[in-house]
Design a protein that fits this description.
Elements (H helix, E strand, L loop, with lengths): L2 H4 L2 H12 L7 E3 L2 E14 L3 E15 L4 E10 L13 E13 L3 E24 L5 E25 L4 E14 L2 E4 L6 E4 L2 E16 L3 E3 L9 E18 L3 E20 L4 E10 L14 E13 L3 E18 L8 E17 L5 E14 L2 E4 L10 E4 L2 E15 L1
Antiparallel strand pairs: 1-12, 2-3, 2-11, 3-4, 4-5, 5-6, 6-7, 7-8, 8-11, 9-10, 13-14, 13-22, 14-15, 15-16, 16-17, 17-18, 18-19, 19-22, 20-21
């Protein structure tokens, strides 16, 4: 899949920039507001509808709280009108809003962004089921439905100053799209039409120009040192694939689920801009069904570097944290009484961290991330039959994308 080529690429490059670019004490030029326009290319990939490349355009507005911390909103329109499909089709429109951090040199700025938002398609398929006047159940697949899905853009790029007020900007990043799952039961039957859900990774590339409004300010970034340790608690949501049951007789092994959870965090700040970050989360809502790789309540642990910049009141960081996803009720025997076991998989957490500092010792923290699970192959025991004379089934391994948001508080010491 094309998304394998660029998953985490921008985050790793952004982390390298933050690690190896020297932090200069020189004043940086910026204004409170920036506006801009851009042409964009969106390359959508997912296992449901295949690939789709879209060319579009849009505009953005940025409010700079300081020389390095900003809030940005961007709207993009993709006028191409490809054929209707189960989850997408027709023209597309996206709105992305989120934080941006930028280090500004005399002629160039290097930045990273983390922007949640939505992606809307104008002509996706919608399905109507029912019973005809003659009593026969029917299924109609119709075009023309609007589908709006949650999106998350993780990326970065460069801004080239062409004058004191104007600049060219180049962005590259990943767009995660959470395609909702839809079930359409056919009346008087046990059949369910299933439009599968998935979190897919897609590529977004933009090039455009910008203009700085208002007064141009020359100001030092006023970076702050960190206290050595941080501890905290958090609550969040993990959207990721899981097994589901529909009604009493239908089972879908690749559904999409939203699991709430809570946990704790311990951070060691090695340098002003570099920390070792560890979290453990417990997602307490068990899935409706267990399969060979997933099932039950989820325990998640992530451990890895966090790199970024902080001022007196806020900080922006990129994270690349390996870890695990441990499922508490996974099947390895599909014979009665259907025993389950715990199974742990390797996982990777890529994304951004936004921190706010109400006081010298306290903090609020918001994590925006792409969780990747690597689910290995398994062998499952099943009742012997003509189709399975050995009583053994082999379940293939696979890789799955997830979208994760957490919020919490912490104490620094």
């Amino acid at each position: 899949m094309a998304s394998r080529c660029f998953d985490g690429l921008v985050l790793i490059l952004g982390s390298a920039v933050l690690l190896f670019v020297p932090i200069s004490a020189a004043a940086q030029s910026y204004s409170s507001f920036e506006v801009g326009a851009a042409g964009s290319f969106l390359f959508l990939t997912d296992p449901i509808s295949g690939t789709d490349g879209k060319i579009g355009f849009g505009s953005r507005v940025t409010y700079n709280f300081s020389p390095i911390i900003s809030l940005e909103a961007e709207g993009l329109f993709f006028p191409g009108n490809p054929p209707t499909e189960p989850q997408r089709g027709g023209r597309a429109f996206s709105v992305l809003v989120g934080p941006k951090t930028e280090w500004r040199f005399h002629r160039v700025g290097i930045f990273a962004t983390a922007r949640p938002g939505i992606l809307n398609f104008s002509n996706a398929q919608h399905i109507v089921t029912g019973i005809a006047p003659d009593g026969i159940p029917f299924v109609n697949v119709l075009p023309g439905g609007h589908h709006t899905d949650l999106a998350l853009n993780l990326g970065g790029g460069v801004a080239l100053n062409t004058s004191r007020r104007t600049f060219l900007r180049f962005d590259v990043g990943e767009v995660l799209v959470r395609y909702k799952q839809h079930f359409y039961p056919i009346p008087t039957t046990s059949v369910v039409v299933d439009v599968k859900g998935v979190v897919s990774g897609s590529l977004l590339v933009s090039a455009g120009f910008g203009y700085r409004l208002g007064d141009i300010t020359e100001r030092h970034a006023e970076l702050k040192d960190a206290l050595r340790w941080e501890v905290g608690a958090q609550f969040g949501m993990l959207s990721m694939g899981r097994a589901e049951t529909v009604g009493v007789s239908y089972f879908d092994p690749f559904a999409i689920g939203d699991d709430p959870g809570f946990g704790g965090r311990l951070t060691y700040n090695y340098r002003r801009w570099l920390a070792f970050d560890s979290t453990v989360n417990y997602f307490y809502q068990a899935g409706h069904y267990a399969d060979a790789q997933r099932g039950g309540k989820i325990l998640q642990g992530t451990f890895g570097p966090k790199a970024g910049l902080r001022t007196q009141r806020a900080g922006f960081f990129l994270k690349v944290r390996p870890g695990f996803l441990s499922y508490g009720a996974v099947h390895d025997d599909l014979r009665p009484p259907y025993p389950t076991t715990r199974l742990t998989h390797f996982a990777l957490d890529l994304g951004a961290v936004i921190e706010l500092y109400p006081s010298a010792r306290t903090m609020l923290r918001f994590d925006i991330g792409h969780t990747i699970g690597f689910f290995g192959p398994r062998t499952v025991t099943v009742p012997t039959s003509l189709s399975v004379p050995t009583g053994v089934l082999h379940s293939s391994g696979f890789r799955d994308n997830g979208m994760q948001f957490t919020t919490g508080f912490g104490w620094r010491f």
